[in-house]
Amino acid sequence: MDPPHAFFSLQTAWGKTSFDVRRRMLQYVQDYVTEHQQEICVVASRDTGKTIGAKIAVINETLKSIVGANEQAVEREATAVRDSEERIGNVLEEFGGMTERLLKSAEQFRGEGESIKNEVMESMVQLQFQDRVGQILSHVVKSIGDLTANAAGMVAGGEEVVTDEAAADYLAGIAQSYTTDEQRRIHEGAAAAAAAPQAAEFF
Q1: For a designed S-S bond to 190, which of 42, 144, 185, 200 qualifies (C-beta 3.0 to 4.6 A apart)?
Q2: Cα-flanking dihedrals φ and ψ of residue 200, to 5°?
Q3: Where are the alpha helices (DSSP H) in 36-180?
Q4: What are the extents of the domains in the chain?
């Protein structure tokens, strides 16, 4: 491989190394130069008029500057990693807190929804009861009115005694107009039964 190609190959490989690897390699070069400074100075002094000590000082300062720059870069990279880890931790902690608050809110909403549902069901049952009572009272009032009218008609017709057949027909007519099971049971002589719990129904 010719020198230019070899140089570019090494340059590419060097560019792929980490800051830590570069720092160690440059430290090795510095140690090598220091250990072999006499030989290096003899070779270097052949081309220039500088003293050996001056050349060694320049090389050492250059290497120290490079090593220092690499160490600063490594430190900046480590600081950036620490900052990123801290930010990620804060985000995860905040997300966890938000999730916990959402779960508590959902549980509270479920409890309130169940309470509202129970209140609505109770209100519907009460409305149903009131509606049935109203139906029964309306029917009672109508029956009393019909009975009064029938009695007045009988008196006007000269009838003084109500026969069993007429009474049975009258009661049968009333029974056909009942709208609830409770009315039918009472009509048949059964005691009024306690209303069994049931789901709310719309009329």
Answers
A1: 185
A2: -70, 140
A3: 37-45, 52-156, 164-176
A4: 3-104
Classify burial at 117, counting beta carbons within 10 Å of its beta carbon; exposed 0-12, middle 13-18, buried 19 or more.
exposed
43, 49, 130 from 37: Cα distances, Å:
10, 16, 112
Long-range contacts of 64-68 (CB under 8 A, 24+ apart): 64/30, 66/26, 67/23, 67/26, 67/27, 67/30
Measured distance CA(168)–CA(138) in Å, rounded: 22
Q: 179 φ, ψ to 5°? A: -115, -5
* Residue 25, token pair as written in the block: 């390699």
**Do the beta carbons of residue 143 and residue 174 sit within 8 Å?**
yes
For the record, the structure tokens of 182 come out as 């409770």
Residue carrying the six token digits 């009329």: 203
